[in-house]
Write a structure and sequence with these properties.
heterodimer, A: 560 residues, alpha/beta, Rossmann fold, Luciferase, domain 3, GMP Synthetase, Chain A, domain 3, 4-stranded mixed β-sheet, 23% strand, globular, B: 81 residues, mainly alpha, Non-ribosomal Peptide Synthetase Peptidyl Carrier Protein, Chain A, 3 helices
């Protein structure tokens, strides 16, 4: 296994244990509702990856070429990703096309990514390929062609340099596509060694994941880590899981799962939406860690999950937390395995007025619970800085800055975007405080909403709404609304319209919801139409997101 | 329980809990998920609500966007029992 001690024996991701020892042990078990499980052994996985790699070479691709993977999440997408890696290219997973997304908008967005990143090829499904081909400048290769155009026995892996870029990670939306996070082989291996140490990874661990592979948590924790470490990965499509959440619990029960990463909303989703009869008799007692990551952690979500699944064997010490981001490959911090995450009660008023996390009694009027994200993992330096760049003391809130051996190499082909300061520190844009060496998150500096684990840039959604007929162009605001029941931020939009006719307003409201669903990966939970001059602006003339959220709250809180 | 009662119970639940707008005039054929009114997470909510309210268990393979995208489809599935 890759550990801090054995790190030097691994040069690139091609040294992954699953591929180095190609025997009949299961590498991936792929589950789908109403289908028999598909078990891919290590030897079958290696054979298939080499076949894809040989085909890519045969089709004219070269090492260091950027290859976009635009599949629905499936085994095919995994073969394509590792096939590209094995021949030295740089794969990047693109978000998948969903039922509600407009295929035209999706394909155009793909074309834009290919243009911006100068991709050498797009690997996609047999179904998408003919649609996509006329829309992008790069060659488009479908699964059937990659599976047949060459033999795996002809392939000799191209071992890249450890400092070479291994793959890119993109966030979705217009903003995300413009910043491909480039990670080197060395950075990814450093992260896996350090993170495996932080979670005390064992050879008999079994990772269970429903997470999307275009997101850092799904890509690193729920895909690359188990394959590099040679522990079995039980996976399913996120689209299957959101509609059928019990699938995750059945997977843990059937395959004796031990590790599972979840964004906070997933704890609420499972607790509220798994029917009793679907969870009855399932054992989750094999689990070592459910790791809450990728969006603000609510203690209430942990308690809800614990209460609901206690009868299935969930215990408090299984509920861990990690603070992570794509720019650091994945994890920055991790709570200690086998210990329940620390919860601090702080005075919300003191936090707001003086940016100080003063301990408070749970019964105090402004008391807030904050869940620890744990200490930094080995190899990560973490600082909390004030607005002038000075390091602040324990319990004082500031921006989180990190420095590590697994930070990004840079943003791909964006020399204009410098991620680090002069001393190699990366400013995360997240606000937090340290207490006894553990990190607590309190908010964000950057204009970002995290909805069900997805990073959503409000400007991307506003751009879509501004194009809806009847909306006053440029007079829209989108913001996040914390929702205790869902355990995440829901999305709300306020748009100015001229018409006062109720039927016309209804039609505009419908069109806004529909267009956002068709053109982005999210759904609006609230749409509020208002008359001209409703929106508040800052002194510099920008729409004031926070002030408009407060105004919306005041105006709608009386509506039942 | 007759069809129109089932329909109204479902309509009220969907606009109140899933669309979060009680004044929303949801029609029988309107695509609830494909129309962007709620996300596919809500299919699981519907499954729970239908079991609690009508004692009808809809197995996972039937809880899909294709089969449960509008009120007519949902009512019809509940009536099947």
């Amino acid at each position: 296994m890759l550990t801090l001690a054995s790190r030097e024996q691994y040069t690139t991701l091609l040294d992954a244990d699953t591929l180095k020892i190609p025997d009949d042990r299961p590498a991936i078990i792929y589950l789908e509702t109403n289908q028999a499980p598909v078990i891919v052994t290590r030897s079958a996985l290696r054979r298939r990856i080499h076949q894809e790699a040989a085909s890519l070479v045969n089709l004219g691709l070269h090492p260091d070429d950027l290859v976009i993977i635009a599949h629905t999440q499936s085994l095919e997408s995994i073969y394509a990703f590792w096939g590209a890696l094995a021949m030295g290219a740089i794969p990047s997973m693109f978000p998948t096309l969903t039922d509600k997304l407009d295929p035209d908008v999706y394909m155009k967005s793909m074309g834009e990514l290919v243009r911006l990143s100068d991709a050498a090829a797009v690997l996609t499904t047999d179904e998408f390929a003919p649609v996509l081909r006329p829309l992008v400048t790069a060659p488009v290769f479908e699964s059937a062609r990659l599976a047949t155009s060459s033999s795996s026995s002809l392939f000799v892996a191209c071992q890249p340099n450890a400092a070479n870029i291994a793959f890119l990670q993109h966030s979705s939306g217009t903003t995300g596509l413009q910043k491909g996070v480039a990670l080197s082989h060395a950075a990814v291996l450093n992260q896996i060694a350090a993170y495996s140490d932080a979670i005390a990874l064992r050879e008999d661990d079994v990772v269970v994941s429903w997470l999307p592979l275009y997101h850092d948590m799904g890509l690193i924790a729920g895909f690359i880590l188990p394959l590099v470490q040679g522990v079995p990965l039980v996976m399913m499509s996120p689209f299957d899981w959101v509609s059928h959440p019990a699938l995750l619990l059945r997977a843990i029960h059937d395959y004796a799962g031990t590790l599972c990463w979840l964004p906070n909303f997933a704890y609420n989703h499972c607790a509220h939406r798994i029917r009793r009869r679907d969870s009855q008799g399932l054992s989750l007692a094999t689990m070592r860690l459910f790791i809450n990551c990728s969006e603000p952690v609510h203690n209430s979500s942990h308690q809800l999950f614990l209460e609901r699944f206690r009868e299935n064997g969930v215990r408090p010490e299984m509920l861990g937390v990690s603070y992570a981001m794509a720019e650091n490959t994945f994890a920055v911090t991790q709570t200690t395995p086998h210990c329940a995450a620390r919860v601090e009660v702080i005075d919300g008023k003191e936090l707001e007025l003086n940016r100080y996390a003063k301990a408070a009694n749970i019964d105090a009027p402004a008391a807030q619970e904050r869940v620890s994200c744990g200490p930094p993992i080995t190899g990560t330096e973490l600082r909390i800085m004030d607005d002038s760049g000075n390091i602040v003391h324990d319990r004082h809130v500031g921006e989180i800055a990190i420095r590590s051996a697994y930070l990004l190499s840079g943003y791909y082909r964006r020399p204009d975007l410098q991620p680090f300061d002069g001393k190699g520190w990366f400013l995360t844009g997240d606000m937090g405080f340290l207490s006894d060496g553990e990190l607590f998150i309190v908010g964000r500096r950057k204009d970002l909403i995290i909805n069900a684990g997805k990073n959503v840039y409000p400007a991307d959604i506003e751009m879509v709404i501004n194009q809806v007929s009847g909306v006053r162009a440029g007079r829209t605001v989108v913001f996040g609304v914390a929702d205790e029941r869902e355990g995440t931020e829901l999305l709300a939009a306020v748009a100015e319209v001229l018409t006062e006719d109720e039927a016309e307003r209804r039609a505009i409201g419908r069109a806004i919801r529909l267009e956002v669903a068709r053109q982005t990966s999210v759904t609006l939970s609230y749409v509020h139409l208002v008359g001209p001059k409703w929106l508040l602006k800052t002194s510099s003339g920008k729409i004031a997101r926070g002030a408009n959220r407060d105004k919306w709250r005041r105006e709608t809180m009386t509506i039942p | 329980m007759n069809e129109s009662t089932i329909r109204e119970i479902l309509r009220t639940y969907i606009v109140r809990e899933l669309i979060r707008d009680v004044s929303y005039p949801l029609t029988n054929e309107e695509g609830i998920i494909s129309g962007g009114l709620m996300d596919s997470f809500s299919l699981a909510s519907l499954g729970v609500f239908i079991e609690e309210q009508f004692d009808v268990y809809i197995p996972d393979p039937e809880l899909t966007v294709t089969q449960m995208d509008n009120l007519d489809q949902i009512v019809s599935r509940v009536l099947q029992g």
